[in-house]
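Q: Is it fine to ask for two folds in a single conversation?
A: Yes, each is treated on its own. Send the first.
Q: Here.
A: Result:
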Amino acid sequence: MGEIVMNSSVPGPRSIQLKQEREEAVPQALANATSIFAKKAYGALLTDMDGNTFIDFAGSIGALNVGHCPPKVVESIKAQLDSFIHTCFHVVMYESYIKLAQQLNELVPGKWQKKTALFNSGAEGVENAIKIARYYTKRRGIVSFERGFHGRTHLTMTLTSKVKPYKYGFGPLATDTYRMPYPYYYRSELPRPEADRNALRQFERLFSMEIAPEDIAAVVIEPIQGEGGFVIPSKEFLQGVKGICEKHGILLIADEIQTGFGRTGKMFAVEHFDIEPDLMVMSKSLAAGVPLSAVTGRAVIMDSLQKKELGGTLGGSPLACAAALAVIETIKEEKLLDRATFIGQRMSDRLNKLAQCCPSIGEIRCLGAMCAVEFVKDRTTKEPNSELPQRIVKMCLDRGLIVLTAGWYGNVIRFLTPLIITEEQLEEGLQIFTEVVQECEKGVFKK
């Protein structure tokens, strides 16, 4: 007997009613990946308003590494509510902010002394990391990468690579930003080492064609591209980028918003590549879905700003700090780094086996429990298949499994399962995905 319970079609009557109310009250620009409305959730399970229980392979786009309603987090938030909700750290300080900063200073890679500032969202964290980098270096230029995603605020949507739906119609965009290639080995015409060298050569070419290196403040990079399709670079590429930064006095900002807090089998993805960034941005699973972001960096950089030059009324709220401290404790106590490695290996084994009989699967990419399947119309031409993932997502939801798409062409299905998912739930979800892909495959290739 599985964990999934389907009491109605999807969406059910209550979800349909709420969807109508949503359309009247909420702008259409706020897109929804599924057609259901949540009633309750725990662990890796979510129950909608019609009593249907789903296995969640989406994890709130990576915000739920410790699962829905993790006990320690819930207890910590409740305890904080009994004391006080908010004082604004700039008005009256509180211990949990300091404790969390101390823990992040210890966890983030780097042998130097570090300091941490807390904010509300990932995009806000990226914006502040760039403010800090520009202030410290007294330079203006910021480099990001093709297929990168860093947020939806004015500056972060400029840094984000994809035009639609993130940037089109919202111009003019921020100035002094530059975009460099990020290796995509599956779609490269060059072998991996040459693809790395070519990307790094183009980086160096920027210095003579666009902007002097002495005028670049920072490079912002995702160690693994999230929205871009879980594209995993080589250690040589990331270390090459770091080497260029060190050569020219450019700060390296690691965007670990989706990759952090155990997702890849390490606390942070940069640890796989032996990289120590100057500044790191964290959010999403930092506080189990409670709005919170952090910028942790070398103390000499963080302390270059003067008083009142960073901040925000709600940044690092007591509720969020309490949640984050409980998240870190949960990751350690439940050995979720090892669990992420196990989940990733299990997924990789099952998905690669599925790929052997499904020609529409072009590539499987996994690092820890950050896994993705890229779909193509033809394995030889590698033409992206954007329609098939949409159908798979819908069919999976109808059977009780929540999954999401990603990728430059929208042809990738990504998995961000809570790391506390049971083996039975993981197997049940993978079985549904396997059956759906096989059914879709037959339908596609019979035509």
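Q: Second one now.
A: Result:
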Amino acid sequence: MMNFGTNTHCSSYTSKENIPASGKVDAPHAQRPKQRRVLGVLSENEQRGRSLSQGSHFSKHSSISDSSQLVSLGSPPTSNFDVYVEEACEVVLAASGQEVVSDSFYLDSKSAGLQHEHSRLLLELSSSSCQDASMQSEPNKSLMSEEVFCVSEYAEDIHLHLRESEMRTRPWAGYLLKHPEITNGMRAVLVDWLVEVVQEYRLRSETLHLAVNYLDRFLSSTAYVKRSKLQLIGIAALLIAAKYEEISPPELNEFVYTTDNTYTKNQLVQMEHVFLNVLAFKMTAATTNQFLRLFMSIRSVCANTENLALYLAELSLLEINPFIQYTPSLVAAAAYYLATYTLNKSLWPDSLIAFTGYTTTEIVPCMTDLHKLYISAASRPQQAIREKYKSSKYCCVSLITAPAVLDLL
């Protein structure tokens, strides 16, 4: 029987979650695994002379076992237009890899000039063969660090700000209806792969949550994205999230490497440019991870409970349905509640009812959906999150058996 008390070998999360003691991520090519997971291949890359038999390695778990998913993620585009952006904004990625922006992209000449200048600077930074300026800047402490959360006089203001922010940065629940070539299963495979990349480069959990938020918002604001572009969109989301959140984000070459060079540096820079314009450079977003940290600063828990709540919160990233219909704060409340209930049979505490305004009745529907996902986690084809939380660093919480039933009311 596993001891569910605080494990002396399991330290709680800090603001430098996955950064080594030196403060610099070290991912030399010499230490890279020989085999690399690849989600899809672009036909235009093949036209450039790239052969899958040269320099590409697939692990036995890397290729997508479901043949329908393999066809969906790897098949070539069926038209010359890959991305159509709504709301008076059309962005076209041609098969040649060149970006074409329609005249309707900018609302007026003044905004066009500003956008052009932003885009020019972005491209100058991102296309450099050296580490870009954002990576060379002085380390900045995250505004959402535990030290900030623990200042009780600011906790209510922080919570109010996050609750307002989560409404401004919510993706549209039905966005997949606008993307006939992309399915919920493909998105789950992509998120599972992003978890592996985050682990390999020892990035923070907040970076993962931000990347998924960017991914969903991008797809909410676009239509008819080709399946062959899905991995490129995913790695661009992670690139931007790492620049936003990490003290020392990986270099551009590293992100290209994660795709086994399926995409070029130029393609990734172009997609980053498109991404930032589609999201209007609004990269600050409230995530489930932020709310969960805040809740645990208000009502502290043991290391096992903390890590189990974090595990459940990450599991929710895998599924659009039903979790996209819930706000991040509600998912965080459900993860907290389910973790404390699983380990201690505890109920939603009065202190968090007063702080969040969420009652048990409001949390139960989301918690029930999260419980179903928790029970099915071991049998899912996507296992990256579960493998991550099998580590002693996270107190092996993914090995904890989910309660068979929830007796909450």
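Q: Anything structural to flag on that second result?
A: Two points. The beta strands are 84-85, 91-93, 99-101, 222-223. The longest strand covers residues 91-93.
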